[in-house]
Write a structure and sequence with these properties.
This is tRNA(Ile)-lysidine synthase. This protein is α+β, with helices and mostly antiparallel strands. It is built from 14 helices and 20 strands. Helix 3 links the parallel strand 2 and strand 3.
Length: 442
């Protein structure tokens, strides 16, 4: 090969310096050229440098018969290098894009394998970055997408690092030939019905023939766009700080923002701020679906608009927008007997109830609102529950999940609401802890 010798080990070690205190390094090991070079580099660096414990993870997608032999190949390579290997079989969900479904299954396995303060290393390189930028440009991506693959990001409880993004494919090929490495050639990488393969085999070679530095300059453009996205993220952080005001219902643990603070921004800044906020909860909508935000924002004051997104819904009520997912989108309808009120009551899919103070007499039961409920209120007589909830500006999405305490057919209390959650004269109070986000809200 004509490729000049490059000091890949030294460059890699320098890139990994900030991560040498991690609890463990996992290498995503497909068995292909790129990940084989990365594994070999790390295994040999570990012989001469103090590095975290290494392990490899091979994900078997089960999409082609040839792949059945790959786990054994990967075990053989890892045994030679003294690196433990974990083989994970995943189920790829059918869908419009097999590439995307396989990627989601693969990264799901990576998240499960990467613990707190652990690092997953993947072998994407500069040519992959150029392909990513070109692919996303054709799909009409914005700044965030055109910034390409980040060199690092959070992954579950740990982090993902791409330490070879400044290395070209030809450098990896040179290293593999020099060290006589053996690797798997995935037949699917030649299938040009897949968009990435078509770009790799049909488009990029023609571009490089005309502009030999195309891969380098495209990677440089991705870096410029990454910097631009960092500035947009800073702007979103400032705008969101103004919208994260205190709500009377912060105790719900449901993410929310003040609508007026967002509505006062330009349309572009609204989308930028919301993108930064929603990215933690859901796959972001494409350009054609941002009309859902405009409809929610501009609906009549007494309306209860909903914007449905991939992993949940955005609701507007009480001058705020609320992110709802998981159990908040399912009705709570089943009554639950509270046989031992001295102990906390775990509500199915709806958190935990506790009594504070003296427990009311009689058999007690928790129900949920059906409509038409009436409650006796001190100094006010009997009042419709709907009116009482309106007076306290209870968000609509909460009303069907608020635990109602009954004794027989008598409504005694509504959890957590002032003047309704207990009886000052009898000295008791009903406290509800809804499911928090880390308990499965989103």
């Amino acid at each position: 090969m004509s490729q000049p010798m490059t000091d890949l080990p030294a460059r890699l070690l320098l890139h990994l310096t900030p991560w040498r205190n991690a609890a463990r390094w996992h290498i995503a090991f497909s068995g292909g050229l790129d990940s084989t070079v990365l594994l070999h580099l790390l295994a040999h660096l570990a012989k001469n440098h103090s590095l975290p414990a290494l392990s490899a993870i091979h994900v078997h997608h089960g999409l082609q018969a040839a792949a059945d032999a790959w786990p054994q190949h990967c075990r053989s390579v890892c045994n030679e290098l003294g690196v433990p290997l974990q083989v994970v079989r995943v189920q790829v969900e059918p869908g419009a894009s097999l590439e995307r479904a396989a990627r989601e299954a693969r990264y799901g396995a990576f998240v499960a394998a990467t613990g707190a303060d652990e690092l997953l290393l993947t072998a994407q390189h500069r040519d992959d970055q150029a392909e990513t930028l070109l692919f996303r440009l054709i799909r009409g991506a914005g700044v965030r997408g055109l910034a390409g693959m980040p060199s690092q990001r959070t992954l579950g409880r740990g982090h993902l690092l791409r330490p070879l993004l400044d290395v070209t494919r030809s450098e990896l090929e040179f290293y593999a030939a020099e060290h006589q490495l053996r690797w798997i050639d995935d037949p699917s990488n030649q299938d040009r019905q897949f968009s990435r393969n078509y770009l790799r085999h049909q488009v990029l070679p023609v571009m490089i023939e005309r502009w030999p530095q195309a891969v380098t300059t495209m990677a440089r453009s991705a870096a410029h766009l990454r910097e631009a996205q960092d500035l947009l993220d800073e702007l979103a952080h400032m705008d969101l700080a103004s919208a994260r005001t205190v709500s009377d219902f912060d105790w719900l643990g449901v993410p929310s923002l003040e609508l007026a603070a967002l509505a006062g921004l330009s349309a572009a800044r609204q989308r930028n701020a919301l993108s930064g906020w929603l990215a933690a909860f859901t796959q972001l909508p494409d350009s054609d679906h941002w009309s859902g935000w405009e409809n929610l924002r501009d609906a009549a004051p007494d309306a209860r608009p909903i914007w449905r997104l991939a992993q949940g819904e955005l609701h507007r009520t009480g001058g705020r927008i609320w992110w709802l997912a998981g159990s908040w989108l399912r009705p709570a309808t089943d009554a639950v007997a509270w046989n031992d009120p001295s102990q906390p009551l775990v509500l199915p899919d709806n958190g935990v109830l506790n009594f504070n103070g003296r427990i009311p007499d009689g058999p007690l039961q928790i129900r949920y609102r059906q409509g038409g409920e009436v409650m006796a209120v001190a100094d006010r007589g009997h009042r419709d529950l709907k009116r009482l909830l309106n007076e306290r500006h209870v968000p609509g999405f909460v009303r069907g999940r608020l635990p109602l305490l009954y004794r027989g057919e008598q409504l005694l209390g509504v959890a957590n609401l002032r003047d309704l959650s207990g009886c000052a004269r009898d000295g008791w109070h009903l406290h509800w802890a809804p499911l928090s986000e880390d308990q499965g809200l989103s």
